[in-house]
Amino acid sequence: MAQWPGHDDSQQLIRRDRSMVSISDDNMMMRQIQATHAPDGREVDVKPLFNLVEDILNRATFQTDIDETDAQAHLEIEDNAQQAGFLAMIDAISFTIDRISCEIACKALGGSDAHATTLSLFSMLSNYSWDAKLVLALAAFALYYGEFWLLAQIYSSNQLAKSMAILKQLPSIMEHTSGPLKSRFDTLNNLIKAMMGVTRCIVEFKDMPSNYITQDAPEFSSAMAHIPIAVYWTIRSVVACATQITTLTGMGHEFVISTSEAWELSTLAHKLKNIHESLKKLMATCYRHIEEKKSHEAYQMLVKLFDSIHIDNMKVLKALIYAKDDLQPLVDGSTKRRVNIEVLRRKNVLLLISDLDISQEELSILEQIYNESRLHLTRQESHYEVVWIPIVDHFIHWDDPTQKKFETLQSSMPWYTVYHPTLIDRAVIRYVKDVWHFKNKPILVVLDPQGRVVSPNALHMMWIWGSNAFPFTSLREEALWKEETWRLELLVDGIDPLVLDWIKEGKYIFLYGGDDVEWVRKFTTAARSVANTARIPLEMVYVGKSTKRDKCGESWQPLQLKSLVTSGKT
């Protein structure tokens, strides 16, 4: 749980509206606030208390639409033990809340200076942390303001409430809420919303996990330096709002707010909005720090996980693919339905890792091999499963064209695919790049039934030997190379049957490549000329990437290129 240091440099958030302060020296004001701060270590669980306060103010604020789901969520308490603890805390702080509420009302009726009233509240709350001071003051205001609007909402149907409302002149006030008083309540609403926004931020700061961000972290200490002044101006706004309600119930609808009072409420709302924006930026910095810590921790966990021995592959796969009990992170390529990660338990799993720019040619070759391996086997009998893990950096903007590109790729794959790239954690992306050396080209990482990496990239092994390379381990690849004879069939097998016919016919075959169209034209012309002159049966095969061939466009047409094979008969 975060701690609240006191820093003299928190006056950075004070703007140039010094006329709102009864003293001219901002530094002196901060020294006065700091002088009242003497926390004795008592803890207040501010989050559930603020949720309660927020619910009251949301329901009380004039003509405010309430999200019933959110309001109910705030009031939900997980179990009886927590409820008992919360009620015990309310019992411990109720006297303090009542004292603050009375102090605010009395000072407002007495016409006390707003700054002096605010300082008196700080003195009453001297033993509490900064966040507790703020939430307790806001709770006192919610008690006062909530009572006002509770009577306003029920006095027409409840005789007791009606009698009390008459004493507070509520019927007369409510008659004018759609007229002269509307702008005043609108101004109050804006200020109350700003107060809750700042308070919500400060409560969130307190709730930050201390195991990921400590008090001495620069990001956190910088944010904490701004808390005292933010608390001051929010409590100062509490005093201003309470004064308006007290004056209104005391003088009735005939009370006309002065220009200076209206200006004060608007200026306070503007100031709190600026403070809120500053706090949100500081909070974003803190959360980035927390995410970096969590990501580093997750990365180290992955390293340790792959260095450990497991009885099956579930721990490893769940770490790689985001998988909660209620989430089905995979899509079955054959049915296009989402499935649980359990379908991979104790199986050899081939992780096809790529970005969204994987070529159709590469996918076609892999799909052909994959389908051939299942010609005479059911999925339950198959020796291995393939899972596509799409790697998309989280900083990349995910728009509709990107989504469509992903969906097109996913729908074309017959094997399992991750439901969405966002399920792949940042730490996993880092691990894939750092340890498995993934850059831009696809890789095929092989995990055995225990989740051990038996090949960091079996893609070329599969392209050359297909399913015969099973179980796709590095040892199996080494054995296959020892058995293999270096010959042309090894290179062209599976590309085009025509090439195998040329070999049987004893023809000379030239292998060539490159994306220099002019060079290729000269080479093929010269080769044909020599072959014709010498009466040599010559064929030519272009070996290279289709992307380079595509660059050359129509210039390749005279060479009669087909797929990866060029036939140049003489």
Automatic annotation (TrEMBL):
Keywords: Membrane, Transmembrane, Transmembrane helix. It holds the Pfam family SEO_N. The keyword Hydrolase does not apply. The chain crosses the membrane at residues 134-155. Residues 24-310 form the Sieve element occlusion N-terminal domain. GO terms for biological process: phloem development. It comes from the Eukaryota. This is Sieve element occlusion N-terminal domain-containing protein. Residues 476-554 form the Sieve element occlusion C-terminal domain.
